[in-house]
Write a structure and sequence with these properties.
A: 170 residues; mainly alpha; Arp2/3 complex 21 kDa subunit ARPC3; globular; B: 327 residues; alpha+beta; six-stranded antiparallel barrel; 23% strand
């Protein structure tokens, strides 16, 4: 067992990074950028879920999604749905952590695309009418952001010596 | 929230067991999310909850606007002296011209009121206005909505029309304590009753979700709407007062296979660039007065004239009949 006093909880990195991503999610950007905004929140939750640094990643996705819904004024639950679905699909259907980085990028792109399509369809069912459809570029940009997010969080976690679940079990 | 944070950091003994529950946990969260959506959109159970939470989140919105605000501040600091002088001169000229216009407007207003009284129709009264600043744009690229910094504390209410100096912007769709959401006229769920300023054809303009275009549906092919026509609000429906410019017609497509003409128009207000808006409400008392005020009864002279006319008509008819009888 690793000495606990030296290691800190994942929250010390998780909460600030989520806050930063949340602000990036709502901050004003030029139209070109704001239409193709990467889904950083999902990537951050995904990282912590993948590296086993948090257990309740789906529950976290629920609260983060709810906050995004409230801030952006979209129907309550739609971001909950998309974020939770992505985290669930990737963490339960793939052995994600063992894949190479380009394979991970590919998976993130496909899952993001599919999830956004389902979210769009669901909102249509609920009665929000949308006409402009732009799924592909946000999904690609989100996927390309994954290596970056991975690297940054890896460095942050190393600096703050965040424990993983496996360390605790040993 | 504390409980959540603690539970996130909790160590579970068995990670495999934890993973085996993931499907159930996911199912619960999806059911929760979908029922939240249904509750929020279909019924208005959560509207109070939204009101309080969104009011509390106002500082976050202001913070999100800060890059924009700072850049504006910086750029305004670096304006040169000559530029300022030039702008000042231009503004004062504009102000002078507009003052002159207002003088004429006062005269026209009183004349209009007098004429309307002559025509026995109720006089339109002034509406109360409120100045507001756009503080945020809803980031969802599909929704055309902005947030302005006035809420229930300034007695803003749902359905208030919003304008700028150029034309109509939209209406208030959601009010919080100190800010409110404005549904822009380009949103697909926004429809505005309009009237063609040239030919007085009534129609309904609907947003398309694109910033530069609204469309006019269900207008017969024979309707007299041409490219370049100005569309004004018609006042029908009671939400938007009449006479505010909305858009100019950019194209009228008529094809034989379609029962209706497909008409596109360009909104006068560039909703992406506006910074200040005016919100105004029909003063409740004056609004009711307008409806309670009845047309003046016809004066005695008029009644007599009218009766005289009817009598004359009957006479001529009867004379004709007599003549016919004589023949």
């Amino acid at each position: 067992m690793i000495n606990k006093e030296k290691n800190s909880s994942a929250l010390i990195v998780l909460i600030p990074s989520l806050l930063v991503a949340l602000i990036l999610q709502i901050v004003h950007l030029p139209t070109f950028l704001s239409d193709n905004r990467p889904d950083l929140l999902t990537l951050i939750i995904l990282y912590f879920s993948m590296t086993n640094r948090i257990k309740l990643s789906l529950e976290l996705a629920f609260f983060v999604g709810l906050t995004v819904d409230l801030i952006t004024g979209s129907p309550l639950g739609i971001h909950v749905f998309t974020i939770a679905l992505q985290v669930y699909l990737i963490s339960s259907q793939f052995n994600f952590a063992k894949y190479k980085i380009y394979q991970q990028v590919l998976i993130v792109a496909i899952v993001n695309l599919v999830t956004n399509c389902i979210g769009y369809w669901l909102e249509h069912l609920i009665g929000q009418r949308y006409y402009e459809i732009n799924f592909l570029y946000p999904a690609l940009i989100t996927a390309l952001c994954w290596p970056l997010i991975y690297l940054v969080l890896q460095i942050l976690c190393a600096t703050f010596s965040v424990v993983t679940e496996k360390d605790n079990i040993d | 929230m504390e409980i959540l944070l603690v539970s996130l950091g909790l160590d579970l003994k068995n990670s495999d067991q934890q993973n085996s529950y993931i499907h159930y946990r996911f199912a619960i969260i999806i059911v929760l999310a979908v029922s939240l959506m249904a509750l929020d959109v279909r019924s208005k159970v959560l509207s109070n909850f939204r009101y309080y939470v969104e009011s509390a989140l106002y500082p976050v919105l202001v913070f999100a606007d800060s890059p924009h605000y700072v850049s504006k501040l910086v750029s305004s600091q670096f304006k040169s002296h000559s530029e300022l002088l030039k702008e000042n001169e231009q503004l004062s000229t504009e102000n002078f011209m507009q003052r002159a216009d207002i003088l004429r407007l006062k005269d026209l207003e009183s004349e209009n009121a007098a004429l309307r009284r002559l025509l026995n129709s109720p006089v339109r009264k002034d509406t109360q206005r409120l100045f507001a600043e756009v503080i945020d744009v809803d980031v969802d690229p599909f929704l055309r909505r902005v947030i302005v910094n006035r809420g229930t504390e300034s007695s803003v209410h749902e359905g208030m029309p919003v304008i700028t100096d150029v034309g109509l912007v939209g209406q208030v769709m959601n009010v919080n304590y100190n800010y409110s959401r404005v549904l822009l006229l380009t949103d697909p769920s926004c429809s505005i009753p309009v009237i063609d300023a040239r030919s007085n054809v009534r129609a309904i303009a609907t947003g398309t979700g694109s910033q530069a275009e609204i469309e006019i549906n269900n207008v017969a092919r024979s309707a007299d709407i041409k490219k370049g026509d100005l569309l004004l609000t018609s006042g029908i429906g009671g939400v938007y007062p009449r006479g505010y410019p909305v858009a100019t017609v950019t194209s009228v497509g008529i094809s034989d296979s379609q029962p209706f003409a497909s008409i596109k128009a360009k909104p006068l207000v560039d909703t992406d660039k506006m910074r200040f808006v005016l919100m105004f409400w029909n003063n409740d008392s004056s609004y009711n007065d307008n409806f309670n005020e009845k047309a003046k009864p016809l004066t005695d002279n008029k009644v007599i004239l009218h009766q005289q006319k009817v009598k004359d008509l009957i006479k001529t008819l009867s004379v004709k009949e007599r003549k016919e009888a004589h023949d």
